[in-house]
C-alpha cells in the first residue's frame, strides 16, 4: 500500500514550467504522511533547499481513495530564510485542497518575488508550485526562525537531554548523521538544523580541510545515490529501510536512541563527567536566560542565540588550544590541556584522537604516560 501511495505522487503545477523537478514529488510529501492531517518539510534538491507545506483532507471520492493530499513548496539556494513563506504556503495548500487548480495566488507570488531576487549562476528562478530565490543572510550563524510552539532549540534540548553532548562530538567529527522518526517530519527537520549548529567554529582557518557538515533535511529512497558520495551530512527520514543501509551513515538516531555500527565510534556514545558538567552549564545558562526574560522582560538574547554561542565558544576553545599546542616547540597535548578544553582526559581520549586526525593536527597525545601519536 505504501508503494502505491508513492507511485501516485506527481508534480501537478510549477513555475517556470520547464524546470527539472525529478524527485521533488517524493521530497515534498514524506512517506507515511497519509496518517497525519498537516506537516511541513525541509529538503534538498540538487544545490537548492526546499520548504513545502503538506495537508490532508478527507473527500468523498473513490478516485482519490477518500483523501486529498497536496504539498505546496518553494526552493531557494539557502534554507535560512524559507521560514518567511511558511504562513503563505500553509494557506495555499489549504486553498489547493478546497479549490484544486486555482493557481493565480501562486503565479502572483512567483511574479512578485522573482522581480527582487538576485540572479543565479544559471539565471534560473524556479518554482514548484512556487520556488523562490531569496537573499542569503551572511552572519555568524544561519537565521532560521522557528515556528515550533516550544521553540526549536528548547525542544531539541528537552528531547535529547544529555545526549546532545554525544551528538555534538559526532557533529564536530563531521560524521554522517541520520535521524529516523515517523511523521510528522517538520520538527525532525528542525533537529537536523540544531545538529548542524553544534559544529559551528568561528576561528579563522579551522575546518577548511574538513568536509562541511551539510543539512540534507528530509530524505527518502530516491536520495540514496546522492548520499553514497557524501562525506558528511545530517538528514532525517521516515523510512525505516535506511537503518539496514549502514554504508550510507555513521550514526543512526532512532527518536532518542543514538547508535553507531562503527566500532571505533562506540566509545563516544558513553557520557563522561565532563559531558555532564557541560550539559549542566548549558541548562544553567538557559534557566538564567528564561529568568531574565520573565523578570526583566529582556528579549535581546534568544534561546537560539544562547545555544549556538554555547557550542561555538566550546568549539573555539578546543581548537584554540589545539592550534597553540600544534604551533609550540613541544607539540604534546597533556591532561591539563584536555581539561582546559572542557574535556575528560580519559573519557574523551577516543574523541580527541579522532579530532586530531580529522582536522589534521600534528600533535602527540600524552595522558597518564600512555602515548598515542
Question: Keywords for this structure?
Answer:
373 residues; guanyl-nucleotide exchange factor activity; alpha/beta; disordered C terminus; three-stranded antiparallel beta sheet; five-stranded mixed beta sheet; 11 strands
Outline:
The chain has 373 residues and is of the alpha/beta class. It is built from twelve helices and eleven strands.
What order do the helices and strands come in, and which of them pair?
Elements: H1 2-8, H2 24-27, E1 38-45, E2 48-58, E3 67-76, H3 86-98, H4 104-114, H5 152-160, H6 164-172, E4 176-180, H7 186-197, E5 214-218, H8 224-227, E6 233-237, E7 251-254, E8 257-259, H9 273-295, H10 303-326, E9 332-333, H11 335-340, H12 349-358, E10 364-367, E11 370-372
Q: Main β-sheet: number of strands, strand sense, barrel status?
A: 5 strands, mixed
Look at the structure and give the mean pLDDT.
83
Overall shape: elongated
Taking all Cα atoms into account, the compactness measure Rg is 23 Å
Give unreliable regions as ranges: 1-7, 115-143, 146-150, 369-373
What portion of residues is helical? 25-40%
What topology, given as strand order, has the largest sheet? 5-6-4-7-8
Order of helices and strands: HHEEEHHHHEHEHEEEHHEHHEE
Cα-to-Cα separation, first versus last residue:
55 Å
Helix-strand makeup class: alpha/beta
What amount of the residues lies in strands? 15-25%
Count of helix runs: 12
Question: Care to count the β-strands?
Answer: 11
Give an account of the 3D structure.
The structure is a single chain. With 373 residues, this protein is an alpha/beta fold. The protein has a domain at 9-113. The protein contains twelve helices and eleven strands. The strands form three sheets. It has a five-stranded mixed beta sheet with strand order 5-6-4-7-8, with helices on one face. Strands 1-2-3 form a three-stranded antiparallel beta sheet. The chain has a three-stranded mixed beta sheet with strand order 9-10-11. A hairpin with an 8-residue loop joins β2 (48-58) and β3 (67-76). α9 (273-295) runs antiparallel to α10. The longest helix is centred in the C-terminal third of the chain and has 24 residues, at 303-326. The radius of gyration is 23 Å and the shape is elongated.
